[in-house]
Amino acid sequence: MANAKPDFSLQGARVLVTGASLGIGRAVALAAAAAGAVVVLAARGQPGLDAVANEIVAAGGHAEVLPFDAGDPAAIRAAIAAAGPLDGLVNNAGSVTREPFLEASEGEIDRILTLNVKGAALVAQAVAQGMVATGRGGSIVNIASIAGLVGARNRSIYAASKHAVMGLTRAMALELAPHGIRVNAVCPGLVNTPLAADLMADAGFVAAMRARIPLGRIMEPQDIAGPAVFLLGAAASGITGIALPVDGGVTAE
Ligand SMILES: NC(=O)c1ccc[n+]([C@@H]2O[C@H](COP(=O)([O-])OP(=O)(O)OC[C@H]3O[C@@H](n4cnc5c(N)ncnc54)[C@H](O)[C@@H]3O)[C@@H](O)[C@H]2O)c1
Question: Ligand 1 centroid vs 95 CA: distance in angstroms?
Answer without folding.
Answer: 5
